[in-house]
Each structure stands twice: as structure tokens, then as C-alpha cells.
Specification:
Elements lengths: L21 H32 L1 H12 L1 H28 L6 H25 L1
Helix pairs in contact: 1-2, 1-3, 2-3, 3-4
Length: about 130
């Protein structure tokens, strides 16, 4: 028998009642950082190509990448690199069926977030 109330019910999960979980946010952020790393790599390749093209073009590319905006982009790329690496390690741990319960998964998620911030600041302090 057909459900007559089907059109009146919200789709699952409904955005008004669904609360994002830490693991879902970190999973989405892993995908975002992967794409951001691609864009950062394209900027570095552009910098190398500019160096191979002409001194004037390299001066422009170098100016852009060493400007305040370029520094922010490279800092974001550095954080994305550490975040994506630690999230990959977290998935390797999960692939071995370790830490799959909710409490352990939340601890691993916080470890990825905190670890990526710490390693970014540590790398900036060293360099």
C-alpha cells in the first residue's frame, strides 16, 4: 500500500534536525585539504615554470608568492599538508580495525586537528 504522507515528511537526514558530527566534519575537511593541496602544488609548478621562462616573469611570480597573500596561501598549504597526512594515518589505523568506537574516533579526530596545528606551527618556527 502506498504511503500517502510520503510528500509531507522531511528527507533523511533533515538539515533542521541533523547535527554534524566531528568525524563527518573531519572527513569533509580531508577532502577539502586534498583539493587545496592540488592548488598549492599548481602554484609551486607555476613558480618553477616562471623561473624557466624569463627573469621578469619569475620576478612577478616570486613577488606574488612571497607577498602577504602568497604567504597566507603557502601557510594554508602547509597546514593542509599536515592535516591531510595525519588524516591519512588515522584512516590507516581505522583500516586495521583499531579505534572504530565513537570515543576513540573522536579522540583520533581531535588528534588530527591538534596535531596538524602543532606541526604547522613547529614547521614555521623551524623554517
Amino acid at each position: 500500500m502506498a504511503d500517502v504522507n510520503r510528500g509531507n515528511r522531511p528527507l533523511s537526514p533533515h538539515l533542521q534536525i541533523y547535527r554534524p558530527q566531528l568525524n563527518s566534519i573531519t572527513s569533509i575537511l580531508t577532502r577539502i585539504t586534498g583539493n587545496a593541496l592540488l592548488l598549492g602544488c599548481l602554484l609551486i609548478v607555476w613558480w618553477f615554470l616562471a623561473a624557466a621562462t624569463s627573469p621578469e616573469y619569475f620576478a612577478f611570480a616570486d613577488w606574488l608568492l612571497t607577498s602577504f597573500i602568497g604567504d597566507l596561501i603557502m601557510l594554508g598549504s602547509l597546514w593542509a599538508l599536515w592535516y591531510h597526512l595525519l588524516a591519512g594515518v588515522r584512516h590507516l589505523i581505522w583500516d586495521n580495525a583499531i579505534g572504530l568506537d565513537l570515543a576513540s574516533a573522536d579522540k583520533l579526530s581531535w588528534a588530527v586537528i591538534g596535531g596538524s596545528l602543532f606541526l604547522t606551527l613547529f614547521t614555521v618556527a623551524i623554517v
